[in-house]
Write the structure tokens for this entry.
Amino acid sequence: MTERGQFATRLGAIAATVGSAVGLGNIWRFPYEAGQHGGAAFIAIYLLCVVIMGVPVIVAEFVIGRHTHKNVCGALRQLSPGGKSHWFSAVCITASILIISFYSVVCGWIVEYLIQAISGKLISAQDHNAEFEQFVADPYRSVLWTVLFLIANFLVLRRGLKNGIERVANVMMPLLFVLLMVFCVNSMLQPGAEKGLKFLFSPDFSAITPHVAIGAMGQAFFSLSLGLSCLLTYASYFKDSDSLVKNATVVAILDTLVAVLAGIMIFPIVFSYGMTPEAGPKLIFEVLPSIFQQMPGGYVLSILFFFLLFMASITSTISMSEISIAYFGEELRMSRSNASLLNTALAVVLGALCALSFGVLSEFKIFGMTLFELFDYVSSNVLLPLGGIFFSVLMGWVIDRRLVEDELSNHGKLKVKMARPIIFCLKYVAPISIVLVFLYGLGAFNWLL
Ligand code: TRP
């Protein structure tokens, strides 16, 4: 069995956890979701979801992980009444692999664009839309970059918790913040930047439909890495002296900050160069490169931009992988290398299938969705909120209240004012609102409208 490690420092633990949360969800998915769903109204619902569901569920995962110091399967076994394995751990492990599979396809695109940016090809391309369409449909190139990205991911994971995950996060997260600030300042200096800011910050509540509400909730869960025991697994490496509520708040604030900053980085330039923000998933690959082309310093900016995305994404994929790696190591007694290898092999096979769903497999549809869309939809909009209900009910109703209070207060050493509101949210607010948003999406309240 592998030695159970701990993050070396509290800052390292936070860097790694923020690294998990901050990813494509913030910089790629958030801007296009907000762009497609009317901007500020979407953001308002999103913020509400972060406060009433996000923070409480982060705390729930932290409590379970740090209390048991085990992988998700071991943790749920320890906490379930009969001491039996819990079916939900299988959901978490499977879902984590589905997420890495479609996520690493986009990471592969980022690597390709980073290299094109460095070689200067991106800046000199004629038609970015056509280039992108052609690239994603090319079976060799898209699979190749997905696999190469997963190999980079493997190399970090194999080095273990402190030398791999924590070290990478300690370097990349501060750098990511600095780069993001540079881009925000640059974006605000563009002529006509106010239009983009207005789009981001003035809400149009008539734009809120069931679809938008579900999208915002799914986005909050996805962006905070919630519901699939990713944060539970990281918290199992926290020290007993860390304050869980403080860590949870820091993670939620920084994650939300990065999402909003990403919006500030993207929308003003989109508007000031006369583009439309509704481009969807392709926004950063088709619209931004053509803007960099026209912008002074565009060559350097395009390299930095895709490098920023690369850092954001690899610190997230290592955290998704850690769910199954901790499981393989502790339950199946594999070495760290073999566990990382098995995780990578599964992700390579499914990731390649997702990569192909933009080309050769684009006609292969299940429920009208390609594999890439299906994995994204099922995991973000169904499994993550379900996991949210699971963890909030588990902590609010099942686990002994004394255990929860002991964990939150580090056995009485900390005074935690937020404990009661958080437990209240976990008992009532989070599960009920998640169920309501689901029902809303299924059309249960159409008679009211
Ligand atoms: N939060 C990450 C992002 O915003 C994605 C992510 C990492 C994730 N780990 C997760 C999503 C676990 C769901 C579950 O890009």
In short: Residues 49 and 234 are 22 Å apart (CA to CA). Residues 20-21, 23-26, 99, 222-223, 225, 228, 230, 316, 319-320, 384 surround tryptophan (CB under 6 Å). The radius of gyration is 21 Å. The domain at 10-448 is CATH 1.10.4160 (Hydantoin permease).
